[in-house]
Amino acid sequence: xxxxxxxxxxxxxxxxxxxxxxxxxxxxxxxxxxxxxxxxxxxxxxxxxxxxxxxxxxxxxxxxxxxxxxxxxxxxxxxxxxxxxxxxxxxxxxxxxxxxxxxxxxxxxxxxxxxxxxxxxxxxxxxxxxxxxxxxxxxxxxxxxxxxxxxxxxxxxxxxxxxxxxxxxxxxxxxxxxxxxxxxxxxxxxxxxxxxxxxxxxxxxxxxxxxxxxxxxxxxxxxxxxxxxxxxxxxxxxxxxxxxxxxxxxxxxxxxxxxxxxxxxxxxxxxxxxxxxxxxxxxxxxxxxxxxxxxxxxxxxxxxxxxxxxxxxxxxxxxxxxxxxxxxxxxxxxxxxxxxxxxxxxxxxxxxxxxxxxxxxxxxxxxxxxxxxxxxxxxxxxxxxxxxxxxxxxxxxxxxxxxxxxxxxxxxxxxxxxxxxxxxxxxxxxxxxxxxxxxxxxxxxxxxxxxxxxxxxxxxxxxxxxxxxxxxxxxxxxxxxxxxxxxxxxxxxxxxxxxxxxxxxxxxxxxxxxxxxxxxxxxxxxxxxxxxxxxxxxxxxxxxxxxxxxxxxxxxxxxxxxxxxxxxxxxxxxxxxxxxxxxxxxxxxxxxxxxxxxxxxxxxxxxxxxxxxxxxxxxxxxxxxxxxxxxxxxxxxxxxxxxxxxxxxxxxxxxxxxxxxxxxxxxxxxxxxxxxxxxxxxxxxxxxxxxxxxxxxxxxxxxxxxxxxxxxxxxxxxxxxxxxxxxxxxxxxxxxxxxxxxxxxxxxxxxxxxxxxxxxxxxxxxxxxxxxxxxxxxxxxxxxxxxxxxxxxxxxxxxxxxxxxxxxxxxxxxxxxxxxxxxxxxxxxxxxxxxxxxxxxxxxxxxxxxxxxxxxx
Length: 857
Prior knowledge:
kinase; transport
């Protein structure tokens, strides 16, 4: 008698290769036949075949059923149901989406440069410039008709041999990707390896080999395997058809013994244009010369696009007539931010992208000092910034990106995606490499955190109604003590190479700390008895369970540090599953109650003499930064790309001010009030003068559009706007009403906009006069730009403009302005600044001469 159960597919991207592999891994150990029935579409699949499962086209919301038939059907049904109920929804996540609307307007200064361009959809961001290189796609049916690619021998035998070699090549590629820690490449290669070894792949090839030549058999098998994917409602599933193309093209190349087309060779900066590009074709390209891709059919979830993002290669898709547009072009600019492809740029277009590059270089330069500096506030209060890593090879790049230590090494990756736990020696080598890379910096290594959303296939975990609150992390250690001991022994051995900080997850009571503390000492005694030496090691716990706050003092003599796991602590404190959309609004670490609780934890830790850290989303949240500093955290641990920016943010804060903010926030009632209070605080912390020497530039622009772009770009560099383009748009909207040249070689463009963070007066001295008013050909050599925040209620905008207009009538003022002369000392400039902020009578000429004086000085 068969067994079965039904479920609704919860996966946003459908049952594609990765979740299909999870199902296959759990189905294969059983002898019974296991079928997945997609009741919504009437399709069915063999649950022991990734390709068959993908072909069932089970997208989000489809009603599905597993059917079990055979000797061990009950056990199989129980195991699969446990997986579907507890873990299936967590085995795949949403994919990055960077699509830019092709209908969004281009920046005003780019439009005015009149580029020859076509629009496209951005799927990987960036800007690239190079010569166009066209790449055609292999048509296996055409190849099969070509006598040059004919081969001898039995079709079945030829295909079997070629498939064996293909599987070997993919396994080798997987090993190489593991060695280089290329996460995206590794994920895709593993998927291809699993597809190539899938029984459905070989069976479909065998079916057509009985009546066709080898190449034609591959072409026909490819068509059949792709058919259900191409018919799918899901873009993601349709894009998986390209992976079948990739495998079949590689297989056909092995059959004929050579490449089916001339490989693309790049020898200079190039923009590659193709209908499509398989992952293996992309990986074969020289990334040094590849500056961008224009693909006709690729979407957000194409494996080729995912690889391009990991290599930082910009990609446009849906560019109409891209090949014809690029034909005979000398140079292409691929703008995968605004979504356009430009051919043979003129001088003004070249100016636009030169200024874009200059802006980015300037922004990066401001952060450069924070790559190697220590984390501390403006008044010298220290707060170290550590990195989170998931694999050992990430450590080196984390330190290169400014990490002062490793605050969270998640060791689960060592135990996942394999048939058994790693050995003690295997773990020791990984931990040793991280310690060596740290070169004396702090390294905190979290012991195995399994259960919940991180099951291990080789452990028989019990069925639980709520695994997140159940049998997980340290709670499982006694049952799997030998595996835990193996990890602890490896960590202690690695301590010979540097201090090892061992962190235990999910601690909820004193007894767990006592037990793990004793276990670590027993492991050390065992190693010493075996003649194996150990170095210095420290023990810490994660504070993820609210009860941990009330035991810190009681275990302080057994531990050296604590690290708050902000994600879990928030959801447990608020009693809401952060993955449940219906209650996700409750999940917010800036809830005033949670902040007060976290402050309480910090006070207890400090009183107990225990080092205090935090990881999770809150650690990387700019809003939370002043609160964490005020609470007295010793370190925060976040993803390494965010470290330098957060260190720069930290340097703008004063400890005393942050303490005042913390007191105010803890007294508030709602999350919205907290966020508004923090945003107001940041505005006060970074409150630059309306005039600053950094707002005075020497401008080499070719035209009016270039001048305005250079001035607004400088506002973004100086942190006075988050979007130079939006301020630029506001300036041009005002220019459309009337030209702002005031005569005497001076123009005063101005705007009042939400995009302006801080009121600013910018000044550009032009290298040569440029036409400002096309109607009468009037030229200017000095530009004074006024940009006022929409929140300004003091009439600053028109007050400055009108006073400036009057002053320009006086020759002495104009001459002083043009010649950068000054007569003000620092005290006089300060008086002027105060007068401006109080919106009283302002001597505009003195204000401007003061800025010019500072710029010369």
